[in-house]
Structure formats: structure tokens, C-alpha cells
Design brief:
- The chain is mainly beta and 424 residues long.
- Among the domains are: 17-68, no CATH class; 93-177, Immunoglobulins (Immunoglobulin-like, Sandwich); 289-421, Sandwich (Jelly Rolls), CATH 2.60.120.
- The protein is built from three helices and 18 strands.
- It has helices at 17-33, 47-52, 296-299, and strands at residues 93-96, 100-104, 115-123, 132-137, 141-145, 151-160, 174-177, 232-234, 240-242, 289-295, 311-320, 323-332, 338-346, 357-360, 373-374, 380-389, 395-404, 413-421.
- The longest helix has 17 residues, at 17-33.
- It is elongated, with a radius of gyration of 56 Å.
- The relative contact order is 0.09.
Length: 424
């Protein structure tokens, strides 16, 4: 039977104002606790509501007398918590695939009454103290996503509805090793661009044949290229350079001259094969030079020999070796007059004879400039010279033969510059 709560009568009018205010406050407080005023969640909960909801049992004393209870609560919870420790799970198995380990064990719902869920712990070694919680399930199966070709150890334990944790299934872990992905496991064209991670590190052993046609966009770092012992390297600007290129490395195609930057090319660098004439751009061919500028004082003064014969003075070396020599000699006048001038190229820097002379020019008055006498610096011209040294392998020396008017006479200076081409 439900107790009927009476209503509140009006506050009497024949009392003082303070009493009226006090009674009004009591009425409002009671209305809040009865749920007649304010937020409904602030109302009081009755024992009847606790009993009807199954959270409490009937009173122990009827009628209720608080003076006779002492320290005993007059009603109890309808369901007492079960603090029993759950049992250890049984039958744990682990089945590994490529990147998944499937775990199964005995159903906790069938082992004890107040089962809540099961915890799954994992470690990379068979040490339970190193294991970490990786999952919680209410059933008896769990799929763990891990890397391929890895080994893991597993333990499981039950937890009750009273948050009591039971023992692990066993002290040694249940081991599982995921499979390694082999080439036979990959079907053709199954690995697409979207399946390759950005900045993925793919070492050289994974690429057996990479052709230029496979590289379509982006940048290929020079440090990723290794040709026959890293002969292709990157300079400080990140550009490719070849520090050792042998003839057998170039098999087909055309090598553009604009792609070749040669800092030191000599005969020892070209050891086999034939370089045809049409592969050489003569306009850009630079050959070693010989000669230089020599002052008149270094050449020495010219004097008359017996019977008024001219004298021959050494000037400089213009090179060495067999070949065709071509260049120029520039003579500048100095003191007084030097006439009947000839250019003599000999195998020695000493006394010139017919036997050691390689080439003797015509008199300068019939050569370029047509200068008969060299008197001052205004008497100067570049005289082109071309001659062949067919057999002498040593140095080739320039001498000038001249007749002085008022000995001793000297040239102002002489400049000689020559190139040499080899002959077969």
C-alpha cells in the first residue's frame, strides 16, 4: 500500500512576518525534496524506490524505530558483490598469418558466474613481466595485428564484474611467429604505387634490373647510384660526376661533347681503341705551348765576326719532340741597327752548325712584315713559322742570326710561341 503524502495548508495570516518567512522556507525545502519544485534530480529517493529497483530489501523493523537500531543498518543491499577471484583461462592457442595472430581460449562466461571481460597481454620475449595490455574482449577470440616475420608471446586473464582480476593462463607465454612474405606469395601486378610507403628505404638487393625507362619523374639522388665500384659520385652541388670512365664502359649511343668536362686528359688516359679525326673538334683543340718572351740583354749583343760575318745568338727553347711546329716569332728593335736577320731552329742551345740545324728561315725582309733592319721598338712584327722536326726527340731551340751596323748591337726583346703536332 502506498502512503499518501498530505498537502501543505496555507500559512496563517495572524502570525508575525518572521514566522511567515520561516514557514515559507520550510515549505519550499520540502517541495524540493518531494520533487514539486526545482530540478527533479534533486528530489529525495525513498526506500520503496530502492526496494522496487532491487537495490535493497524490506526493513528489519516495522514500524521503523531509529531509537532501537543501535549500529545496525535496518535494510541491506539486495545483491551482495561477488569478490571471488576469477579462474585462470584455459586452452589458449595462437595461430599466425602474415601480419595477424589469432588467439582463442576457453569462454569465460562458461567458467564462472560474474565474468566481465578477458585481457590480452603481449611481449617480444617469454617474460610475463615485460608484457603489455594489447586488447580487451568479452568473447574468447582476439586478432592481433603485428608485423610480418616477427615473434610474439601472449598471456590472457579474466576480469569479474566486481573488477577482480584472475591469474594469467600460464607462466610461459604462448608463442606465435608471423610468416615472412616471399616472392612466390605476391601475384603479378599486385603491388601498386599506393602500396609503397613514402620515403620507403628499398636497398639495392631488392632491385635486380632498373632501367632508365622506369624512372619517369622526381629526383634521383647521386648517392643512390653505384656503377662498378662507385665511379659515379655527386659533387658539392649535388651534380653527378664521373671520376673514372674507361672505354669499356661506353658501349653504344652517342656521347655529346657538351656532356664531357675534361680537366686532365693526356695520352696515358687513352690506352686502347682508336679516336678518329671526325671525333676531334680542331677549332677547340689546345696543344702544349713552348717559348716565351726573352729580353735583348738575355739574348746578348751581336758583334761582327772575322771578315764581317754575322753572329748567331740563342733565344729560347720552343718545345721538344718529333712533330710539326707552328707558331710565330716577334722581334722588336733595340739599340742601333741589326740587319740580315734569319731565324734558325737547332737541336742545341750552343753553337749552331749545319749538322744540328732543323730549319732556317728566309731573311726577315722577305717574311711577314718585310723588315730589313731592326732599330727601335717600332721595328716589330709577328713572323709566322711552320717547319717539321722528323727525328729529333730532344729540345728544339730558337737562335737568331743577325749582322750589326755599329757593334755591339742588341734587340729590344724577342717573343716566341709554338705548338707541336705529332706525326706518324
Amino acid at each position: 500500500m502506498t502512503t499518501k503524502i498530505p498537502g501543505f495548508p496555507p500559512i496563517p495570516q495572524n502570525i508575525d512576518a518572521a514566522t511567515k518567512a520561516y514557514l515559507r522556507a520550510i515549505g519550499e525545502a520540502l517541495e524540493v525534496r518531494l520533487g514539486l519544485r526545482g530540478d527533479p534530480v534533486d528530489r529525495a529517493v525513498t526506500l520503496r524506490e530502492l526496494i522496487d529497483s532491487g537495490l535493497a530489501t524490506q526493513l528489519g523493523h516495522v514500524p521503523f524505530n531509529p531509537d532501537t537500531l543501535g549500529t545496525t543498518v535496518d535494510f541491506e543491499s539486495a545483491v551482495a558483490p561477488d569478490l571471488t577471484q576469477p579462474p585462470a583461462p584455459t586452452g589458449l592457442t595462437a595461430t599466425a598469418a602474415f601480419e595477424t595472430v589469432l588467439l582463442e581460449w576457453g569462454n569465460g562466461n562458461l567458467q564462472f558466474r560474474n565474468f566481465a571481460f578477458t585481457e590480452i597481454h603481449r611481449a617480444t620475449s617469454d617474460v610475463i613481466g615485460n608484457a603489455t595490455l594489447v586488447g580487451v574482449v568479452r568473447g574468447n577470440r582476439f586478432a592481433d595485428n603485428v608485423d610480418s616475420d616477427t615473434t610474439h608471446y601472449y598471456w590472457v586473464r579474466h576480469v569479474s564484474t566486481s573488477d577482480i582480476r584472475g591469474p594469467f593462463n600460464d607462466t610461459p607465454g604462448t608463442v606465435a611467429t608471423t610468416q615472412k612474405l616471399e616472392g612466390a606469395d605476391i601475384q603479378p601486378l599486385t603491388i601498386t604505387n599506393t602500396l609503397i610507403a613514402n620515403n620507403a628505404a628499398i636497398d639495392g638487393a631488392k632491385i635486380a634490373d632498373l632501367s632508365a625507362a622506369k624512372i619517369t619523374t622526381g629526383t634521383l639522388d647521386a648517392n643512390r647510384i653505384n656503377v662498378d665500384g662507385a665511379t659515379i659520385v655527386a659533387n658539392s652541388s649535388g651534380q653527378l660526376e664521373v671520376n673514372e670512365l674507361n672505354a669499356n664502359k661506353i658501349t653504344t649511343g652517342t656521347l655529346n661533347a657538351g656532356l664531357i668536362n675534361v680537366t686532365n686528359l693526356n695520352a696515358s688516359n687513352i690506352n686502347t681503341g682508336t679516336m678518329s679525326a671526325d671525333r676531334i673538334d680542331v677549332n677547340n683543340l689546345i696543344l702544349p705551348t713552348g717559348g716565351g718572351v726573352v729580353s735583348g740583354s738575355s739574348i746578348g749583343a751581336y758583334a761582327l765576326g772575322s771578315g764581317g760575318t754575322p753572329s748567331t745568338n740563342h733565344v729560347t727553347s720552343i718545345g721538344s719532340g718529333v712533330g710539326v711546329y707552328f707558331g710565330y716569332v716577334r722581334i722588336e728593335g733595340g739599340t742601333n741597327h741589326l740587319k740580315n736577320v734569319f731565324l734558325v731552329f737547332a737541336t742545341t742551345s750552343g753553337t749552331v752548325t749545319t749538322g744540328n740545324t732543323l730549319f732556317k728561315s728566309a731573311k726577315t725582309n722577305v717574311l711577314e712584315g718585310n723588315i730589313l733592319r731592326f732599330y727601335s721598338s717600332t721595328d716589330s712584327t709577328n713572323i709566322p713559322i711552320l717547319f717539321q722536326n722528323p727525328s729529333h726527340t730532344g729540345s728544339v731551340h730558337l737562335h737568331i742570326q743577325a749582322t750589326p751596323d755599329s757593334p755591339p748591337d742588341t734587340f729590344g726583346e724577342v717573343e716566341a710561341m709554338f705548338l707541336r703536332l705529332g706525326i706518324a
